[in-house]
């Protein structure tokens, strides 16, 4: 039986750059490595509010990441 490949990146959050940075930091605090996509484009070419960025994690960390994001939303964090 072939083991499932969980090395693909999956989106767990999308919103403004500052929200994405906050989520990335929360994930890092819980030991989940995350990356922001489109953040460089926002910083260099467009006003921050003009574009949505996404936070991605390894597919193997998806459930743990979503638990952190749900906790954030349930404690009054801004939803996207």
The fold-level CATH name is Alpha-Beta Plaits
CATH architecture: 2-Layer Sandwich
Q: What is the average per-residue confidence, as pLDDT, rounded to a whole number?
A: 82
Number of strands: 3
**How would you name the oligomeric state of the polypeptide chains in this document?**
single chain
Strand order of the largest sheet: 1-3-2
Residue windows where pLDDT falls under 50 for at least 5 positions: none
Largest sheet: 3 strands, antiparallel
> What is Rg?
14 Å
Number of domains: 1
Termini Cα gap: 40 Å
Strand content: 15-25%
Helix content: 40-55%
- Secondary-structure class: alpha+beta
Structural shape:
globular
Order of helices and strands: EHEHEH
List keywords for this structure.
80 residues, alpha+beta, Alpha-Beta Plaits, three-stranded antiparallel beta sheet
């Amino acid at each position: 039986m072939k083991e499932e490949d969980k090395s693909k990146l999956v989106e767990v959050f999308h919103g403004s750059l500052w929200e994405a940075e906050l989520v990335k930091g929360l994930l890092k605090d819980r030991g989940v490595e995350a990356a922001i996509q489109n953040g460089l484009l926002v910083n260099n070419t467009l006003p921050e509010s003009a574009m949505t960025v996404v936070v991605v994690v390894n597919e193997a960390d998806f459930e743990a990441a979503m638990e952190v994001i749900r906790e954030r939303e349930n404690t009054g964090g801004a939803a996207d």
